[in-house]
Amino acid sequence: MDEFEKLINRNPLLQEVVGLAKRGYTNLPYHNFDHAKNTFVASEKFASQCEEAGASVDRLVTGPAALYHDYDFAKAPEAKFSSKESRSANRAERDLTSVLGHERVKRIGKCILATHIDASCETIEEKITVRADIENVSSSFAWFFANFFRLQHERIHLNPKSAISIKASIETTENILRKYLQDRDLSLPGDKSSPLEQMLSNMVQLKTIGQSTLDKMLHKVDEEN
Known about the structure:
mainly alpha; globular
């Protein structure tokens, strides 16, 4: 039994949420159900950190938000939704109101909407959801390195015309992450470092890797998918 299963098995309500949420994920290289599971595990880690620092966290908000935040990511945009995040939040509301209640599901939706690059974070649950979503870029370099290439492969898979050089992709990624991390306060009780500091450290390491190694890594991800 892995860490995700151990955490889910603590609460029958979360087990029901998992069964509902996994229907919205496909086998994309990055935005698949493994990403949702990893985001959930990270949300539990941050919730524990906050609680140990004396803060109160509703894990029946952060957990379901993590599991639903990229629901239907592979689907084409729909005019009735302003963003992928709003579509995911809408689906969570439709699926979970009868399970978790209207008020809690409303907060889950706000957490999902907070993962949009231009959104702000008002509650500790919203900050935890965003921090958990970007854990792959603000934690270890090894994890960041692997997921960087999965994201490049996925972008091309979803839009073949979007192919750009690895160098250009690194620059674009850094610009996006800087905006995502600099324009809002994502600090949590008990933090020992900021996600921005770790992301910048990861980007510095990525830029030191030779072009041939980067090309080989992208080719490896292509073969895996």
